Amino acid sequence: MIQFDKVHKSFGDNHVLRGVDLTVGRGQSLVIIGGSGTGKSVLIKTVLGLENIDNGKIYIEGQDVTQMQPDNYMSMFGMLFQGGALFDSMSVWQNVAFRLQRGNLKRPKTEAREIAIEKLRRVGLSPDVADRLPAELSGGMQKRVSLARAIAADPEIIFFDEPTTGLDPIMACVINDLIREVVVEMGATAITITHDMTSVEAIADKVAMLQSGLIRWSGTCDEMAHSGDPYVDQFIHGRAQGPIETLR
């Protein structure tokens, strides 16, 4: 579904991506792990077209993304942002239906609201939440609204950027389960960025570690536990000592 072919991206002298090769199968849930500042979010932004790559190619279903029509291309994606990124001046349903009222996906207001309420139900929120403002909701409820927005247009590909950040362990588990259920139910292809190893185990079909601008290792969760790679072992066990440099 998605292929990164020797993707490079630099910001001045900061070489963030140094030749990333990675393939994500259709309907697969890939989780990308790696330390802060290793380029995980930048990698997602290159797929979305928010950052132009310097060299290499990115393909969606075998097509070079630079040759695809922007409206058709963007309609394939859903995104759950790290902080939720809800519009605080809009009601919950308007947030969920934001994509449905713009561009080539535009629906009548009544239909967009109905879809939004159905997606809210899918993530465990009742219709009475629809007309409330995001500020009136708990952090966990806001995250569910963000997930409902990500799936509102039934995208083929969904990105999750640190989906459990700021949540208590119980709510994080709930969100992980919801993500897994939704991805499987929709048959969507998913890429998740996370530092939370509990999320990795709950969400991932495949795990890839981004280190020093390259995919250091990839495999299943079971394989990760016995990777034999010192970088992977240090990261998943949260050890201060190891090949990954830490600030003292």
Describe the largest sheet.
6 strands, mixed
Spatial ordering of strands, largest sheet: 6-7-8-3-9-10
SSE order in H/E notation?
EEEHEEHEHHHEHEHEEHH
- Annotation field: number of helices: 9
DSSP helix fraction: 25-40%
Counting DSSP E segments of at least 2 residues, the number of strands comes to 10
Poorly predicted regions are none
Distance between the termini: 41 Å
Mind telling me the C-alpha Rg?
18 Å
The share of residues in extended strands comes to 15-25%
Arithmetic mean of pLDDT: 90
Class per helix and strand makeup:
alpha/beta
Morphology call: globular
Can you put this structure into words, describing what you see?
By secondary structure, this protein is an alpha/beta fold. The chain has a domain at 86-154. 34% of the residues lie in helices and 24% in strands. It has helices at 40-48, 70-74, 92-96, 109-122, 139-151, 169-186, 197-203, 221-225, 230-237, and strands at residues 2-11, 14-24, 29-33, 55-60, 63-64, 77-80, 157-161, 189-193, 206-211, 214-219. Strands 6-7-8-3-9-10 form a six-stranded mixed beta sheet. α4 crosses α5, α5 runs parallel beside α6 (169-186) and α6 packs parallel to α7. The longest helix is centred in the C-terminal third of the chain and has 18 residues, at 169-186. It is globular and about 55 Å long. It starts with a strand and ends in an 11-residue tail after the last helix. The mean pLDDT is 90.
